[in-house]
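// run 5 | inverse folding | seed 20
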C-alpha cells in the first residue's frame, strides 16, 4: 500500500508541475518565432565643404582701369584690363567677369555684384 501511495503521490506532483508549466506558457503563441524586423536604413547626407570666402568687389576689379568715355547712345566706358592688357568697351547692363555694369556717370562707372557696389573712377 505504501508503494501505491508513493506512486500516486509522485504522479500527483508530476501533474501539478505540468499544470504549473502550462499556466506559465501561452498555449496560443506560435511555436516558430517570427522573423526579425529588418534594420532601419539611415540615409547620411554628405557634409558639404564650407563656401569659399567671398572676395570683395574692389579686390575682384582691382586690375581694371577707367581710361575714358564715349558719348554714344548708349553711353560707353573705355576700361583697360591691366592683367590681360586688353581694352574693353562697356555700356550699362553689360557684364564683366560676373560683375554687372550698373551705371555710367560723367566721371565714373558703377559695378554691382551680390548686393555690393563698386565705383571705378578716373
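// decoded
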Amino acid at each position: 500500500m505504501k508503494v501505491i501511495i508513493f506512486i500516486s503521490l509522485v504522479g500527483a506532483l508530476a501533474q501539478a508541475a505540468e499544470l504549473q508549466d502550462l499556466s506559465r506558457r501561452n498555449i496560443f503563441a506560435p511555436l516558430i518565432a517570427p522573423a526579425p524586423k529588418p534594420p532601419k536604413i539611415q540615409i547620411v547626407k554628405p557634409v558639404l565643404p564650407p563656401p569659399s570666402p567671398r572676395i570683395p568687389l574692389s579686390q575682384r576689379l582691382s586690375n581694371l582701369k577707367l581710361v575714358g568715355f564715349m558719348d554714344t547712345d548708349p553711353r560707353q566706358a573705355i576700361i583697360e584690363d591691366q592683367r590681360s592688357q586688353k581694352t574693353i568697351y562697356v555700356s550699362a547692363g553689360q557684364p564683366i567677369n560676373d560683375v554687372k555694369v550698373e551705371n555710367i556717370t560723367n566721371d565714373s562707372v558703377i559695378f554691382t555684384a551680390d548686393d555690393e557696389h563698386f565705383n571705378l573712377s578716373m
